[in-house]
Amino acid sequence: MKELTHISNRIRQMAAELGFMHCGISQSKRLDEDARRLEQWLNKNYHGSMAYMANHFDLRVDPSRLVPGAKSVITLLINYYPDTEQSQKAPHISKYAYGNDYHEVIREKLRQLLFRIREIAGDVNGRGFVDSAPVLERAWARESGLGWIGKNGNLINKQAGSFFFIATLITDLELQYDDAFAGDYCGTCTRCIDACPTDAIMDNKTINGSKCISYFTIELKEMLIPGEMKGRFNDWMFGCDICQDVCPWNRFSRPHNEPAFTPIPEILELNPEDWEAMGEDRFREIFRHSPLKRAKYQGILRNLRFLRPEST
């Protein structure tokens, strides 16, 4: 038991040294209740055209399908809250996309963490995941005591709010486990529900992903955004932070200290005309390491044109 405690504490220490703001550890298990909620969500087609959400269902709810013999799920949070804001003339971009692509940044940190774990614990089998793999990150964060899932669908941490990325490291190493987070501190607050301009946030902690501004500006690949959404994007060109910006718990957000998340100057300053004049080659050059490359330049132009009052 003393050895488990020692290794677990060393892992938390190493995570902090790599820049993670919080680290929680849960025992690996099948997430049956979360599986039922996910199945219901998918059956209601709240994922829209995001077909990948329905893929690999069993892998999402059972860590042992991803790492044979899985015993522990290590969940890590890394802050991305910026210390600067966009200029008033700039079309809105989600704060998580101000700097380099978090997938690239966090994958390297997870690789280093697993390497260090093997140095102190021997031959450990493990895999790190960041957002793009079939893992229920928020559920594991809750199970490892890092916070609760708010009405806006985001994980909320009492000390840090919700402007952070969630990463997961599944291993076959037995560790000392944290208690699951008990309680829900959203209370009667409905600020996120009231503020959502597309009514994507429902009153039972369910998000209709197919109505979210982030879905339309990033995930939707068709070149036409549904006309009924016209005038409801509040100048959001890529993603949306409205439900987080109005959340009272984000008064505890503090600027990150991760150099890779330093805002790209063009994101802070360019107006819509600058974006349209940029051209595809320059876009690729400037944003080759940015999450914006996911929407591609043509997607950015589509979003900008949809924001114009006179466009159809």
TrEMBL record:
Cofactor(s) of this protein: cob(II)alamin; [4Fe-4S] cluster
Catalytic reaction equation(s): epoxyqueuosine(34) in tRNA + AH2 = queuosine(34) in tRNA + A + H2O
Binding-site residues for [4Fe-4S] cluster 2, renumbered to this chain: 196, 212, 240, 243
Domain 4Fe-4S ferredoxin-type residues, every copy: 177-205
Keywords: 4Fe-4S, Cobalamin, Cobalt, Cytoplasm, Iron, Iron-sulfur, Metal-binding, Oxidoreductase, Queuosine biosynthesis, tRNA processing
Residues given in the record as tRNA binding sites: 221
InterPro entries for this protein: 4Fe4S_Fe-S-bd, 4Fe4S_Fe_S_CS, QueG, QueG_DUF1730
Active site: 131
PANTHER family cross-referenced by the UniProt entry: EPOXYQUEUOSINE REDUCTASE
Listed name of the protein: Epoxyqueuosine reductase
